[in-house]
Structure to design on (289 residues):
Protein backbone atom coordinates (compact mmCIF):
# COMPACT_ATOMS: atom_id res chain seq x y z
CA UNK A 1 0.00 0.00 0.00
CA UNK A 2 1.12 3.54 -0.70
CA UNK A 3 2.70 4.91 2.55
CA UNK A 4 1.11 8.30 2.02
CA UNK A 5 -2.29 6.64 1.67
CA UNK A 6 -1.74 4.87 5.00
CA UNK A 7 -0.92 8.21 6.64
CA UNK A 8 -3.92 9.85 5.02
CA UNK A 9 -6.12 7.08 6.42
CA UNK A 10 -4.81 7.91 9.89
CA UNK A 11 -5.78 11.57 9.52
CA UNK A 12 -9.11 10.60 7.97
CA UNK A 13 -9.87 8.63 11.15
CA UNK A 14 -9.08 11.72 13.24
CA UNK A 15 -11.30 13.88 11.03
CA UNK A 16 -14.10 11.32 11.38
CA UNK A 17 -13.65 11.77 15.16
CA UNK A 18 -13.58 7.97 15.56
CA UNK A 19 -11.19 6.80 18.31
CA UNK A 20 -11.58 3.13 17.38
CA UNK A 21 -10.72 3.87 13.76
CA UNK A 22 -7.63 5.80 14.88
CA UNK A 23 -6.48 2.84 16.97
CA UNK A 24 -7.02 0.45 14.03
CA UNK A 25 -4.46 2.31 11.90
CA UNK A 26 -1.60 1.25 14.23
CA UNK A 27 0.48 -1.87 13.76
CA UNK A 28 0.79 -4.22 16.77
CA UNK A 29 2.97 -2.47 19.35
CA UNK A 30 2.61 0.90 17.61
CA UNK A 31 3.03 4.04 19.72
CA UNK A 32 2.02 7.69 19.73
CA UNK A 33 3.87 10.57 21.42
CA UNK A 34 3.43 14.34 21.52
CA UNK A 35 4.15 17.13 24.05
CA UNK A 36 1.07 16.15 26.08
CA UNK A 37 2.03 12.46 26.24
CA UNK A 38 5.85 12.56 26.13
CA UNK A 39 6.14 9.05 27.52
CA UNK A 40 4.11 7.64 24.63
CA UNK A 41 0.92 5.57 24.53
CA UNK A 42 -0.14 2.49 22.59
CA UNK A 43 -3.05 2.28 20.14
CA UNK A 44 -5.65 2.01 22.90
CA UNK A 45 -4.08 4.93 24.77
CA UNK A 46 -4.11 6.97 21.57
CA UNK A 47 -7.82 6.26 21.14
CA UNK A 48 -8.47 7.37 24.73
CA UNK A 49 -6.39 10.52 24.23
CA UNK A 50 -8.23 11.35 21.01
CA UNK A 51 -11.60 10.71 22.65
CA UNK A 52 -10.78 13.26 25.35
CA UNK A 53 -9.99 15.88 22.73
CA UNK A 54 -13.19 15.12 20.82
CA UNK A 55 -15.19 15.47 24.05
CA UNK A 56 -13.72 18.95 24.65
CA UNK A 57 -13.69 20.03 20.98
CA UNK A 58 -16.63 18.23 19.29
CA UNK A 59 -15.81 19.77 15.89
CA UNK A 60 -12.06 19.07 16.04
CA UNK A 61 -10.43 18.38 12.68
CA UNK A 62 -7.06 18.53 10.92
CA UNK A 63 -6.29 20.52 7.78
CA UNK A 64 -3.32 18.76 6.15
CA UNK A 65 -1.02 21.40 4.70
CA UNK A 66 1.65 19.04 3.37
CA UNK A 67 2.27 15.29 3.31
CA UNK A 68 5.41 13.66 1.95
CA UNK A 69 8.32 11.28 2.46
CA UNK A 70 11.58 12.26 4.16
CA UNK A 71 14.99 10.99 2.95
CA UNK A 72 15.05 8.77 6.06
CA UNK A 73 11.86 6.99 4.97
CA UNK A 74 9.52 8.69 7.41
CA UNK A 75 6.23 10.31 6.47
CA UNK A 76 6.19 14.01 7.35
CA UNK A 77 2.82 15.71 7.77
CA UNK A 78 2.35 19.41 8.41
CA UNK A 79 -1.10 20.19 9.76
CA UNK A 80 -3.39 22.74 11.37
CA UNK A 81 -5.68 21.44 14.12
CA UNK A 82 -8.93 23.39 14.42
CA UNK A 83 -11.79 23.15 16.87
CA UNK A 84 -14.11 25.00 19.24
CA UNK A 85 -13.91 24.45 22.99
CA UNK A 86 -17.59 23.93 23.82
CA UNK A 87 -17.14 21.31 26.56
CA UNK A 88 -14.84 21.09 29.64
CA UNK A 89 -11.13 20.75 28.86
CA UNK A 90 -8.68 19.30 31.41
CA UNK A 91 -11.15 19.98 34.19
CA UNK A 92 -11.71 23.61 33.16
CA UNK A 93 -15.07 24.97 32.02
CA UNK A 94 -15.45 25.52 28.26
CA UNK A 95 -14.29 28.86 26.92
CA UNK A 96 -16.26 28.80 23.68
CA UNK A 97 -13.10 29.87 21.86
CA UNK A 98 -11.74 28.44 18.63
CA UNK A 99 -8.23 27.05 18.33
CA UNK A 100 -6.01 26.92 15.28
CA UNK A 101 -2.93 24.96 16.33
CA UNK A 102 -0.10 24.34 13.84
CA UNK A 103 1.99 21.21 14.19
CA UNK A 104 3.71 18.32 12.48
CA UNK A 105 3.77 14.52 12.71
CA UNK A 106 6.56 12.17 11.71
CA UNK A 107 5.19 8.72 11.01
CA UNK A 108 7.03 5.41 10.72
CA UNK A 109 5.23 2.47 9.15
CA UNK A 110 5.27 -1.25 9.83
CA UNK A 111 3.71 -2.89 6.80
CA UNK A 112 0.28 -1.35 6.37
CA UNK A 113 0.14 -0.03 9.95
CA UNK A 114 1.75 2.73 11.96
CA UNK A 115 4.80 1.75 14.00
CA UNK A 116 5.10 5.21 15.55
CA UNK A 117 3.64 8.69 15.33
CA UNK A 118 5.68 11.51 16.85
CA UNK A 119 3.78 14.78 17.05
CA UNK A 120 5.28 18.23 17.57
CA UNK A 121 3.44 21.43 18.47
CA UNK A 122 3.61 24.32 20.93
CA UNK A 123 1.23 23.49 23.77
CA UNK A 124 1.31 27.09 24.92
CA UNK A 125 -0.32 28.20 21.66
CA UNK A 126 -3.50 26.25 22.43
CA UNK A 127 -3.59 27.56 25.99
CA UNK A 128 -3.24 31.17 24.85
CA UNK A 129 -5.87 30.72 22.14
CA UNK A 130 -8.27 29.48 24.83
CA UNK A 131 -7.53 32.70 26.77
CA UNK A 132 -5.91 30.75 29.60
CA UNK A 133 -2.86 31.96 31.51
CA UNK A 134 0.57 30.52 30.75
CA UNK A 135 2.80 30.71 33.83
CA UNK A 136 6.53 30.00 33.56
CA UNK A 137 8.18 29.47 36.93
CA UNK A 138 10.37 26.91 38.69
CA UNK A 139 8.70 24.13 40.65
CA UNK A 140 11.00 24.93 43.55
CA UNK A 141 13.97 27.12 44.33
CA UNK A 142 15.92 26.68 47.54
CA UNK A 143 13.43 26.58 50.43
CA UNK A 144 10.59 27.91 48.24
CA UNK A 145 7.97 25.84 46.39
CA UNK A 146 5.83 27.53 43.73
CA UNK A 147 2.32 26.99 42.43
CA UNK A 148 -0.87 28.62 41.17
CA UNK A 149 -4.05 29.99 42.75
CA UNK A 150 -7.65 30.89 41.96
CA UNK A 151 -10.51 32.58 43.80
CA UNK A 152 -14.29 32.94 43.81
CA UNK A 153 -16.03 35.99 45.26
CA UNK A 154 -19.35 35.83 47.13
CA UNK A 155 -20.64 38.50 49.51
CA UNK A 156 -18.53 41.55 50.22
CA UNK A 157 -18.84 41.43 54.02
CA UNK A 158 -16.45 40.99 56.91
CA UNK A 159 -15.77 37.25 57.41
CA UNK A 160 -16.67 35.67 60.73
CA UNK A 161 -15.24 32.20 60.10
CA UNK A 162 -12.91 30.30 57.78
CA UNK A 163 -12.92 26.66 56.69
CA UNK A 164 -9.55 25.34 55.53
CA UNK A 165 -8.41 22.16 53.80
CA UNK A 166 -5.11 20.65 52.72
CA UNK A 167 -4.73 17.51 50.64
CA UNK A 168 -1.47 16.04 49.37
CA UNK A 169 -1.74 14.03 46.16
CA UNK A 170 0.46 11.41 44.54
CA UNK A 171 0.34 12.38 40.87
CA UNK A 172 -1.00 14.85 38.31
CA UNK A 173 -4.17 12.81 37.75
CA UNK A 174 -5.13 13.11 41.41
CA UNK A 175 -4.22 16.79 41.39
CA UNK A 176 -6.53 17.38 38.42
CA UNK A 177 -9.34 15.47 40.16
CA UNK A 178 -9.01 17.59 43.31
CA UNK A 179 -8.99 20.82 41.29
CA UNK A 180 -12.09 19.76 39.37
CA UNK A 181 -13.99 18.86 42.55
CA UNK A 182 -12.85 22.05 44.29
CA UNK A 183 -14.20 24.21 41.46
CA UNK A 184 -17.53 22.38 41.61
CA UNK A 185 -17.73 22.86 45.38
CA UNK A 186 -16.94 26.57 44.93
CA UNK A 187 -19.77 26.91 42.39
CA UNK A 188 -22.16 25.28 44.87
CA UNK A 189 -21.01 27.67 47.59
CA UNK A 190 -22.04 30.66 45.49
CA UNK A 191 -25.65 29.68 46.24
CA UNK A 192 -25.10 29.49 50.02
CA UNK A 193 -26.34 32.54 51.95
CA UNK A 194 -23.36 32.76 54.33
CA UNK A 195 -20.62 32.35 51.69
CA UNK A 196 -18.12 35.23 51.52
CA UNK A 197 -15.32 33.96 49.28
CA UNK A 198 -13.08 31.05 48.34
CA UNK A 199 -9.36 30.77 47.64
CA UNK A 200 -7.70 27.69 46.13
CA UNK A 201 -3.93 27.28 46.04
CA UNK A 202 -1.75 24.56 44.48
CA UNK A 203 1.84 24.34 45.71
CA UNK A 204 3.78 21.34 44.47
CA UNK A 205 1.83 18.20 45.41
CA UNK A 206 -0.25 20.04 48.03
CA UNK A 207 -3.63 21.67 47.38
CA UNK A 208 -5.14 24.14 49.84
CA UNK A 209 -8.52 25.83 50.07
CA UNK A 210 -9.51 28.69 52.38
CA UNK A 211 -13.20 29.61 52.43
CA UNK A 212 -14.53 32.70 54.20
CA UNK A 213 -18.01 32.64 55.78
CA UNK A 214 -20.19 35.20 57.53
CA UNK A 215 -20.22 33.14 60.74
CA UNK A 216 -19.46 29.69 62.13
CA UNK A 217 -23.00 28.41 61.54
CA UNK A 218 -22.73 29.15 57.82
CA UNK A 219 -19.91 26.58 57.43
CA UNK A 220 -22.49 23.83 57.92
CA UNK A 221 -24.10 24.77 54.59
CA UNK A 222 -21.34 22.74 52.93
CA UNK A 223 -23.21 19.59 53.88
CA UNK A 224 -25.78 20.50 51.24
CA UNK A 225 -23.24 20.43 48.40
CA UNK A 226 -23.36 17.30 46.24
CA UNK A 227 -19.85 18.09 44.97
CA UNK A 228 -18.57 18.30 48.57
CA UNK A 229 -20.09 14.90 49.36
CA UNK A 230 -18.45 13.46 46.24
CA UNK A 231 -15.12 14.97 47.29
CA UNK A 232 -15.37 13.36 50.73
CA UNK A 233 -16.33 10.02 49.18
CA UNK A 234 -13.34 10.23 46.82
CA UNK A 235 -10.89 11.02 49.62
CA UNK A 236 -12.15 8.27 51.95
CA UNK A 237 -12.28 5.79 49.07
CA UNK A 238 -9.81 2.91 48.68
CA UNK A 239 -7.06 4.56 46.63
CA UNK A 240 -6.72 8.34 46.57
CA UNK A 241 -4.04 10.79 47.78
CA UNK A 242 -1.41 10.65 50.50
CA UNK A 243 -3.37 12.44 53.21
CA UNK A 244 -5.28 15.56 54.17
CA UNK A 245 -6.55 17.69 57.01
CA UNK A 246 -9.46 20.09 57.41
CA UNK A 247 -10.48 22.66 59.99
CA UNK A 248 -12.76 25.56 60.85
CA UNK A 249 -11.23 28.76 62.21
CA UNK A 250 -12.81 31.79 63.88
CA UNK A 251 -10.72 35.00 63.76
CA UNK A 252 -9.64 36.41 67.11
CA UNK A 253 -9.85 39.84 65.51
CA UNK A 254 -9.88 41.47 62.08
CA UNK A 255 -8.10 44.80 62.02
CA UNK A 256 -10.48 46.56 59.70
CA UNK A 257 -10.30 47.56 56.06
CA UNK A 258 -7.80 50.32 55.39
CA UNK A 259 -7.73 52.38 52.18
CA UNK A 260 -5.56 55.28 51.05
CA UNK A 261 -7.22 58.67 50.84
CA UNK A 262 -6.78 60.26 47.43
CA UNK A 263 -6.70 63.73 48.96
CA UNK A 264 -4.21 63.56 51.86
CA UNK A 265 -2.56 60.25 50.87
CA UNK A 266 -3.05 58.79 54.35
CA UNK A 267 -4.56 55.41 55.22
CA UNK A 268 -8.04 55.49 56.76
CA UNK A 269 -10.52 52.90 58.06
CA UNK A 270 -13.09 52.47 55.29
CA UNK A 271 -15.20 50.10 57.38
CA UNK A 272 -15.78 52.84 60.00
CA UNK A 273 -16.49 55.86 57.79
CA UNK A 274 -16.93 56.85 54.18
CA UNK A 275 -14.89 59.99 54.83
CA UNK A 276 -11.24 60.52 55.71
CA UNK A 277 -10.29 62.63 58.73
CA UNK A 278 -9.27 65.31 56.21
CA UNK A 279 -12.89 65.51 55.08
CA UNK A 280 -12.42 63.89 51.66
CA UNK A 281 -14.59 61.00 50.52
CA UNK A 282 -12.70 57.73 50.66
CA UNK A 283 -12.32 55.58 47.53
CA UNK A 284 -14.09 52.26 47.27
CA UNK A 285 -12.37 49.71 49.46
CA UNK A 286 -11.13 46.31 48.28
CA UNK A 287 -13.29 43.24 48.87
CA UNK A 288 -12.93 41.61 52.25
CA UNK A 289 -12.20 38.22 50.68
Amino acid sequence: MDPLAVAQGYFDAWNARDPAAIASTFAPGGTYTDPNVPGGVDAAGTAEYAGGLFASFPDLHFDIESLGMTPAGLIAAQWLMRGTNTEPFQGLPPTGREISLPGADFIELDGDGLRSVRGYFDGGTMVRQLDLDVIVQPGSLGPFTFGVSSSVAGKDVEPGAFSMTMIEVRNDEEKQRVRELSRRVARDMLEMPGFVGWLGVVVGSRLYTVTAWEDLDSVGDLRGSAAHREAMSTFFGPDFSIGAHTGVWAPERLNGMWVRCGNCNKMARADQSEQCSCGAELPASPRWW
Observations:
- The domain at 146-249 is CATH 3.30.70.100 (Alpha-Beta Plaits).
- DSSP finds six helices and 15 strands in the chain.
- The mean pLDDT is 93.
